[in-house]
Design brief:
globular; alpha+beta; 23% strand; 37% helix; 17 strands
Length: 441
């Protein structure tokens, strides 16, 4: 198996705790109607521990070579609570799974936890984003024992990587530099980045841990409401994200809203890269929330995705970026998700290999992305984050929002319900959803 090296996105997320004061975390949640036995959960833990989630980053032996992912053992044991959760304690429990530390340099690589809930079991898998992105986690769950990586590369391997990086940097820079010198806009972006204050120069701020809401909507209803307004499933999702910011953050003022749209670069579920995505910033009009016409958002999103090849995680060629000192490299990265107002991550259909967990079919699956210990407002613009997945005949949307604007979780849930209702969507509470659907079945 070839050595897997950290890419710029991996490095940026890895350093986020030092640069932004918080770490991005991805959480997958499963609801099961029936209790899941502890041996079945332990078997899943053992299987995942032999897969791509269990790896750590090691420095190269030579300067100029990139760091590598190598296989590692997860020191974070399976955690199973005996006390049943209630609809009132469930939110605190899932937040605890996210907020308990998983330091980058520790042996606690990821966390699998479960608790009795609503006559069945609630299961949480928590993974630091630098270790794997959302679709990568789906792939890791499905592939199971697909190896995480090999032993640390030899000095010869590092020498080869160093030589490649230098050669690629020289060639890429030779192509990039004349184009950049001839482009005023590009020169201005780089100049502004180099003049920006360092992270240490910004005013310290207390982290704001996100409030959270999870809702389910009939998938056919979501599609029909989107098409009736000239949109798609995804453009409706993007507009919902923008509306939440227009209402709760902008207060209806006509200031444009930047929506971060992650686009996957993965070729298959066996893609071993930790993070294979680029966040595309989509600027939409400000003003009051709009629930009429999705065609402008659909056109703008389509045009943005069409130009995706022009986007990169860095302001200079990636091979050159890897050779720069840390401080300069931090300045010369694209702003990314943390410098948008809201991120809207559409993960599509939950793979069968993910919904089928611990040898049981989950009633529902949800996915959240969170900042831990929270967003520092002086260091990041991000105010909300939305994730959308489809489970069979229903869509599950999670919304996390900074409490300065969205209030506590109860207030956020009320705001989300109002937004979905304004589109003619019937939102069902995810808390107790297993029982709700069991009674309707």
């Amino acid at each position: 198996m070839a050595t897997e090296r950290l890419n710029p996105t991996d490095e940026m997320l890895y350093r986020a705790a030092d640069v932004l004061g918080s770490t991005r975390i991805v959480q997958v949640l499963w609801q099961f109607r029936e209790p899941v036995p502890v041996p079945a959960l332990q078997a899943e833990w053992d299987r995942l521990n032999q897969g791509r989630l269990s790896r750590r980053a090691v420095a190269s032996a030579l300067p100029g070579a990139r760091r590598s992912w190598i296989g590692a053992h997860n020191d974070e044991a399976l955690a199973v609570d005996e006390v049943p959760l209630t609809h009132h304690t469930m939110t605190d429990w899932i937040d605890t799974q996210v907020s308990a530390p998983l330091p980058a340099e520790s042996g606690s690589l990821w966390r699998l936890a479960a608790a009795p809930y609503d006559g069945g079991t609630l299961v949480s898998l928590t993974v630091p984003h630098f270790r794997c992105d959302g679709l990568g986690i789906f792939g890791a769950i499905g592939s199971g024992r697909d190896p995480a990586g090999q032993a640390a590369p030899s000095p010869a391997d590092d020498a080869i990587d160093m030589a490649r990086q230098i050669a690629e940097a020289a060639l890429a820079t030779a192509r990039w530099l004349p184009r950049t010198l001839a482009g005023p806009a590009e020169r201005a972006r780089i100049g502004a980045a180099l003049k920006a204050p360092t992270a240490g120069a910004t005013t310290p701020a207390a982290p704001r841990f996100f409030s959270s809401a999870i809702a389910e909507v009939d998938a056919a209803q979501w599609r029909d409401r989107a098409e009736a307004r000239g949109g798609t499933v995804n453009s409706l999702f993007v507009e919902i994200a923008a509306n939440l910011v227009r209402t709760a953050v902008r207060g209806g003022i006509s200031i444009p809203v930047d929506v971060g749209i992650p686009m996957t670069l993965r070729r298959s579920e066996h893609d071993a890269r930790a993070n294979a995505l680029v966040v595309l910033p989509l600027t939409v009009p400000g003003g009051p929330a709009s629930h009429v016409d999705l065609r402008p958002t659909r056109r703008a999103t389509k045009e943005l995705l069409r130009s995706a090849d022009e986007h990169s995680g860095t302001l200079v060629p990636e091979a050159l970026w890897h050779l720069l000192p840390d401080g300069l490299a931090h300045r010369l990265k694209n702003p990314g998700a943390q410098q948008t107002d809201v991120v809207a991550s559409n993960f599509g259909q939950v793979p069968y290999s993910v919904a089928e967990f611990a040898e049981r079919r989950a009633t529902s699956v949800a996915l959240r992305t969170m900042n831990v210990p929270g967003v520092l407002p002086d260091k990041a613009r991000l105010r909300a984050s939305l994730c959308l997945v489809r489970n069979s005949d229903h869509m599950t949307v999670t919304v996390t929002g900074i409490p300065d604007h969205f209030g506590d979780s109860a207030s956020l849930r009320h705001l989300v319900d109002e937004e979905l209702t304004a589109w003619g969507l019937t939102a069902h509470r995810w808390w107790g959803a297993a029982t709700h659907r069991a009674k309707e079945a």
